[in-house]
Structures are given as C-alpha cells and as structure tokens.
Amino acid sequence: MRNRRNHLLVLGLLTTLLLALPTGSLWAHDCSSPADCEQTAGYNAMLAIVGGIMGILASLLGPLLSGATPHPPALPPQPEIGPAPVSPYPETWIGPAQPEKTPSQEEIFASQGEIGMPAENQKIYDKLKEQGLTDREIEQYFKDAEAENANLKAALWDVTDLGNRLDLFPRINEGIGWGLDYLEQFTGGPGKGVKIGFDFTKGAIDGYYQAQGSGQPYTQKDAIIAGIREIIWDQVTKPLIASGKTDFAEPKSLKFYQDLIKQIETTKSEYYGPTASWLIDQGYNFATSIKDTGPKHSPYDMEVYENALKPKD
Amino acid sequence: MSWMVPESAGFSRAPHLQRPRKDGETSLQPYELVFSAVLGALALAAAANYVWGVMPPAYMVSVGAMPLGLLLAGVILWRRGLQQNLHRACGTLLMGVFWGLVATFAYDLYRLLVKLILALQFDPYRVQPIFGHIITGLPTSHPLALFLGWGYHLWMGILLGMLFTLMRPRGGALGGLVFITIIQVLRLAAYPSVLQASWEDPEFLANGVIGMGLWGVVVGTGLRYRGWRDA
Which of B17, B191, B198 is nearest to A25 (CA)? Predict the structure, then answer.
C-alpha cells in the first residue's frame, strides 16, 4: 500500500512537471505586477487541474488517501495469562478432532490471484504474522484485498467504458494537443519540443489502435513511422492548411481525422441523447474558443493596477 | 479507433464482486454532504461563469477544475460501493482544507509581521484587490471585488492544501517544505519576471522563500499531528 501511495506521489509530481514545465509564464501564486496577476491564474488553473486529476487517480488506484498503512482486522480479545490449567486428560490424548484444517502459507497465496508479486505478499504476510495474526485471519485479509482490487478494476473499467461511449478519449487527446499548442505560444522552443514529443507519442498510439482494429501486426518500426507521420501532419501540413495553402495532396491522417469527426457527429445522438450531446458540444466549443483566441487580457485599466500596487503607507 | 481496455488485461465488469455494504457505511455523514455541496457549488459557479463570462477562463478553471475532479472521484467510489474509501477521502481532503486555510492565514499574518518588524516597503495584501478586480471587473476598492479577491486567495491556499494532502496524506514538516519548494523552484525556472528575483531582494527572500516555506511547514506539521487517521 505504501508503494502505491508513493506511486501516486510520483504520478502527481510528474503530472505537475508535465503541465508546469512548458507553461513558461504561467507561474506565480503571488503576483508582483499587473502582468503577473494576469498570468498567475494560469498557474493556479494548472494546479487545480493537477488536483482534479490526482483526486480521480486516487479514487481509481485504491484507498490511498487515508495515509494509513495496511491494517489487519482487529484481533479477537485474548484471554488473560494465568497459571496453566491442569489437564484432566492423559498426556497421550491428542484432543478433539479439528473441524477445519488451517491453510498453509502456500495455500493462502495460491488462492490470491493477482494481489501482487509473491515477494510483496511474503512481506505483508510476515508483517501480519509479526502482529500476531493467525493464518486464517491473514487469509481473510488477502481475500478482502483481492475483492477490493477487483472492485477498483471494475471501477476503472466503468470509467473507460463511459469514456468510450461518450467518445471522450479522442477529444481529451485533441484537448491535450490544443493545450500544448496554447502553451507553446508562451514558451517558444521548449513548448514546441514538448508538442513534438506529444505528437510522436500520439501518432504511435493511434497507429497501435488502428493496427489492432484491422488485425494487422504492429512493430516498433510501424510505431516510429506512425509517430513521424503525426509530427509531419501537425507541424507541417496543418499550418499549411491554416494558411490557406491547399494545393497539395491531402494526407491520409487528415482523411482519418475527418472520418472520425463525421462518425462522432452522426452517432453521438444515438449513444447519449440530445442533452449530453449538447453538453459535450459546449465543452468542445469552449476548448476550441480558448485555443483559437490565444492569450487574452481581461478588460482592466492599467492605471487602476498601478494605483493598487502603490504602497498604502 | 478502440480505446477499450481488453478483457485479456484482467479488467472486467464485475458487479457481482461488489463488496456488500455494511451497516453504517451506506450514507454520507453531514459534514461530507456539506463538503460535497461546497465542491458542487464551486463547480457550478465555474460553469455559470462559462455561460455569463464574468471572469477570465483561467480563473474559472482554477476555481472549478479541482472540485469537479474530486466530485467525479467521489461518484466513482460511491458507485462502486467503496464507501469506506469515500469516507477516508473526505476526511483526508477536509484535513487538507483545514490546514491549507490555517497555513494561508499564518502566511498572511507573517507577511504583515515581517513588514512591520523589518520595516520593508511593500503592501502585504496588494494582490487580493487585484484578483478581485480581474474577477469582477469592478474597481479594486469595491467591496465585492475585495471579498472575491480574498476568497480567491484563500481558495488557492485551500487548493494547495488539498493537493499536498493528496500527495502526502500523513504530511510532515519536511514533506510540506519539499512540496512548496518544488512549486517555488518550478516557478523560478519558468516565470520570466521572477527570474529577475534576487537573493538580495528582501521582499522576495521574506515572502517568496521564507513565507512560502512557512506555509509548507504549517501544513505538513498540522497534518502530521492533527491529520486524518483511519479508524
């Protein structure tokens, strides 16, 4: 459990870094000038998004939020230690027949499926044993953990399934691309580098799913080609289209993109009804508007700022 | 394109594996309901702002994104019958809210004290009216602008407190210090105007380094000694 918490910590820091490093001027909780204050909200927005993602990750990864180490079930009350009772039976008597055989350590692990690596299980077993639990109680502990893991996996499946039904993943993918485009305006070269890296990854993953859909094998070489193709599409072809230049062969990826959008448009009402369709369109349009307008200054009066910044005493 | 997680990866819909709910864990506690309602109100406020467009988008996202994510997380846990986890999550996050708020008050008090004691020339509370002005479009002296500016400032303290709690539920002074230092170092690395900050600048040293460090230590220490503990 502690390992999983540490994983969450690392995930959080990585998410922060991923979102933070290319943001350039989007920093500062405490602003020192009007321009800073204008930008500080971007930094805060980034932190808020990281927080939201962290909350969802924590809910999917398990009971990580309590900060508690795995706690075993409560021990039954132990009888007070007193003088050893005198046995009424002769020493050769072996006692009443045991109603149930206590499971061995191997049997416990054999029934656990995918709780974790055996070495990890061994450590947990040893720890619980040190705390005085019987093998029966430890078995119950592992069974509870297994049921909880199954629940969490089912929750993850549900989220994935919901995402598929709502066509969220392609849009999230697009949204990340737009976000990086937007941030690139602040950072220049480094932001462009991040975007190119994202393009490559996106192309390689898209290629994988396309190959999987068509039943074709997908090699490392295919992934590299798909990644490079996406970089060319994003960095070269799209700007040409945006600048009005259309006298070149339409790239295949463009056709794929158009087909995908058309498919989403035609099928979305069947899947989730007009209300959800409207909501998704709103989100889509909002994201588009942010991306299209670029950095925007709120209507404020610089003089008001300057006056506000003057020391009051 | 299929983003479906394959069955072969071990993921399957398993309603029959839902843990049976136990007595006492089927309902939310009153404080959890209040917390959820506040988060919902913030998310709704951000959504309403999208319709009426009062504050800039970045401010809207910084107010609405985390509550929305946390509510979604709560729905996931609730829907899967993981009420105990939901109770833990609420308790832990509320500790983050509390200590984030306390640390922000401490930080604000510190700013005032350091100015008075060291006779520094800066307005310790200059950003709140500016936040309020940007959010509302009203003059910085307008009561609503002041109220919302301070509200935004405190909300950011709370948000950072919750974020730290998500990353390190057990807190610790060192953990808090490291957390806020990472935030500050990244800021220094990426923020052009702060790049001009100098160690010889007393305000930067007092607030940007020591003040923020104080915030981290207060949050970390508070969580360590008075944080949420699983029963």
Answer: B191
